[in-house]
Amino acid sequence: MNTKMTIEVEFSDNAFVATADIILDEAINILSFSFILNNDLVISEIQSNGKPVSYEKISEERPTFRPLSQKIVLHDNDTIRRIQIRYSGSVAFSPEKRSCWHNIITRDIKSLSWYSVWYPQGTSIEIQHDKVKILNGSDYFCVKGHYDEALNVWEYGDEGYDPFNIMAYRKEVLQTVYNPSMNIYFVDDTIKRHAARSVEIYNEIVNFYNGNLFNRVNIPVLDVACASPAITTGGGYRRKDFMWCTSLGNNDLEIAWLNAHETAHKWCTGANSSSWEDWLNETTAEWASLLFALSRNDMALFDFILKPKLEKSSSFPPIKTPDNSRPNGVHEKGTVLFYELYQKYGVEPVRSAVRIFTDLKIKNTAAFLDMLCNQGQNQIADFIKEGIMK
Ligand SMILES: [Zn+2]
């Protein structure tokens, strides 16, 4: 299948206008099409096969990790070959509403991602190729994008990245620190003084993980996009060699934890992150960070990562939810469960459990427990099996 979606986006200081252009695979024969879009965005027109077409909002829903979204359905009397959706508005992270994580549009920073539903998602036809074009390109620098001077657009996508994770900075204010292992992009002056330390610790972490704690992989240059001062809370995310964060951290402990946790996700990934199974991704990433701290006898870092979780863990529900939904406190509960394992059996079983998860072909709790048993770690498997119900 070869269905393509290209989104043209034009930014102002605090909003955007976008056109999503979807060209369907020739083998697809449909008369209707549906998708979801952030509920605050306003659709001005939808065309099918080049003609305006009627559409309706049939419901509102709140998809996992994302804000309230409108579900739109359009119908045509002819087979739909091409759909163009024009819409505009703004999306912004709200800590109070716990919505639109990592998204904001300011004069200096345009930060958009999957977490805001700023582009059509949940499409009734699966999309194989995706691309973003940012107009008025000469005003910006887009991390991971390619600048086309003739067209004055930044193009981004179709290279195995999720191109809808946009981090574009106004050129005049962007600062960059380049290194052999990471490029750091920011506008906030205070980040500059932490850049050198961040690179240093990142290299130390990669040496500990790559080919030691985890199997050896090729590590491309990491692009780190900082959102401060536009966004200063709410954590970060990582997609391949693109890392989004608010800042690099304000001190050595924060810098080490951010790098250790996010880098671990290169391996600690693959369990369904919208279900309770996400405990596997997050627990192993936190424990990779804790094992890194132990490897350098850095008990200050160990406590810095662990203590807040020990304090909060008991207030959260069990990891395994009756309806398989993702419980609150999935980082805390799993990290503390592995800490109990560490206290009872020592560091080796924890190290091996982390490694076993990352080596699994099918990443879920059942396969994880099976593999522990296959490797003769029945006691550990039983301990975890009980722990996730508590
Ligand atoms: Zn994580």
Low-confidence stretches: none
Strand order of the largest sheet: 5-4-8-2-1-11-14-13
Which CATH architecture of the largest domain would you pick? Sandwich
Gross morphology: globular
- Write down the CATH class of the largest domain: Mainly Beta
Question: Total number of helical segments?
Answer: 8
Strand content: 25-35%
Radius of gyration: 22 Å
Q: What structural class do you assign from the helix and strand content?
A: alpha+beta
Number of strands: 20
Q: Could you estimate the helical fraction of the residues in percent?
A: 25-40%
* Head-to-tail CA distance between termini: 45 Å
Describe the structure.
- This protein is an alpha+beta fold and 390 residues long.
- The chain is 29% helix and 26% strand.
- It has 8 helices and 20 strands.
- It has helices at residues 189-209, 252-264, 278-295, 299-312, 330-345, 347-359, 365-374, 378-387; strands spanning 4-11, 16-23, 32-38, 42-48, 51-52, 55-61, 69-75, 82-89, 104-105, 109-112, 129-134, 140-142, 146-148, 153-157, 166-170, 175-178, 182-186, 222-226, 237-239, 242-245.
- The strands form 4 sheets. It has an 8-stranded mixed sheet with strand order 5-4-8-2-1-11-14-13, with no helix packed on it. A 5-stranded mixed sheet has the order 16-17-18-20-19, with helices on one face.
- Helix 3 packs across helix 6 (347-359).
- It binds zinc ion.
- Zinc ion binds next to helix 3.
